[in-house]
Amino acid sequence: MTSAPSGTRFSAIPRTAAQTRVLDAALRLIAEHGVSGTSLQMIADAMGVTKAAVYRQFKTKEEIVVAITEREMARLEDAVEAAEAEGHPLRAREVLLDRMIDQAIERRGVVSVLQFDPVIIRLQAEHEPFQRFIERLYAALLGTEAGVEARFHAAMLSSAISVAVMHPLIADFDAATLRAQLTKMTRRMLDLPETAQDSAGSAKSRSAAP
Amino acid sequence: MTSAPSGTRFSAIPRTAAQTRVLDAALRLIAEHGVSGTSLQMIADAMGVTKAAVYRQFKTKEEIVVAITEREMARLEDAVEAAEAEGHPLRAREVLLDRMIDQAIERRGVVSVLQFDPVIIRLQAEHEPFQRFIERLYAALLGTEAGVEARFHAAMLSSAISVAVMHPLIADFDAATLRAQLTKMTRRMLDLPETAQDSAGSAKSRSAAP
DNA sequence: GTCTATACCACGATAGAC
DNA sequence: GTCTATCGTGGTATAGAC
């Protein structure tokens, strides 16, 4: 505990190649079946190895889930830090939202699973590093104010972004269309003026789907 | 099949008192642990009976999950029908959104679980009555148009509403505050003018949280 | 008709020996 | 890395008590 770094940096956690392979396979399966619906056997089969081989890389199933969560949070961590580096809280929020949209699109389907799986929710509540990071994320999302409306906006935004990207109604949207619409909508939700770039993006996107 | 009613009416499915007790207990547990994370044993324990007693009411676990989904959809069914009864599609959408907000608040936490659990998602894809109903719901939500923007709006709204109500940042909101904020936000997302009622609601709500 | 007692088999995570 | 074992628990099933 004496060597514990003051700031939790998920990005700094080292993984061997074998561990990374386990995490990749596990994430794919968990995204499809949920944590409880994914067994070590399934992970092993997907990797073409035995259960014992998986068990060698991570002592328990929970460790795998923790590692997956850490890896996913590491990506968001970069976004939060980029936002915190901005001087102005309003500008910070914009940067963060932009990055969150990027990531939600880039990892379409994955983000929401991690956000809604009951097992992962419990894990996040139990592991302090996760808790601390989430609070940091919320802080950046809230900016300076913390009233009813601000909190509602932050809640609505952070949930809507990660969920909308995997909605069946827009499953056929390409990344560019999605990003344009999401950017436009988040700005509207916050009552911010649309940027010229947004309008161009959303106009272009209109031709992207029949 | 000859006796199958033309319109699927989930509301018309009869349940005995014993079955209802099983569904109540199961829903609570599933909302907390997910479908895969909930065993017949847990359901039985929660009811203070044995596994066999549960098994007597529903032959399989899947039947329980189907029944739960039917029961929850029956509630939405009323909302969809009320919307369809409106002449104007725009007005229909407003009515539906209003009811969806009501239900998301009333059954806070339950709606989103059913919407995101991998097992239930698979079930919905496999059972045609569920599929048909969902399409009906989307149709009412889309109104007349079905372009990129309209679909995006429908997706964003239907996901955001059910998810936001259980977001930790606003877990302390009371029902009235939630409803006011949700109504206001959905109107803003659709670029509709705010109603006097909304403003009053959101003003009142401001005093509901410190 | 509803619940209990009990059993069955497959599979879950875990573990140590190879 | 694999093989094999352990041990609990999953869902399913039947027979019989109230």
TrEMBL record, chains A, B:
<dbReference type="GO" id="GO:0000976">
    <property type="term" value="F:transcription cis-regulatory region binding"/>
</dbReference>
<dbReference type="GO" id="GO:0003700">
    <property type="term" value="F:DNA-binding transcription factor activity"/>
</dbReference>
<dbReference type="Pfam" id="PF00440">
    <property type="entry name" value="TetR_N"/>
</dbReference>
<protein>
    <submittedName>
        <fullName>HTH-type transcriptional regulator AcrR</fullName>
    </submittedName>
</protein>
<dbReference type="InterPro" id="IPR001647">
    <property type="entry name" value="HTH_TetR"/>
</dbReference>
<feature type="DNA-binding region" description="H-T-H motif">
    <location>
        <begin position="39"/>
        <end position="58"/>
    </location>
</feature>
<feature type="domain" description="HTH tetR-type">
    <location>
        <begin position="16"/>
        <end position="76"/>
    </location>
</feature>
<dbReference type="InterPro" id="IPR009057">
    <property type="entry name" value="Homeodomain-like_sf"/>
</dbReference>
<keyword id="KW-0238">DNA-binding</keyword>
<dbReference type="InterPro" id="IPR050109">
    <property type="entry name" value="HTH-type_TetR-like_transc_reg"/>
</dbReference>
<keyword id="KW-0804">Transcription</keyword>
<keyword id="KW-0805">Transcription regulation</keyword>
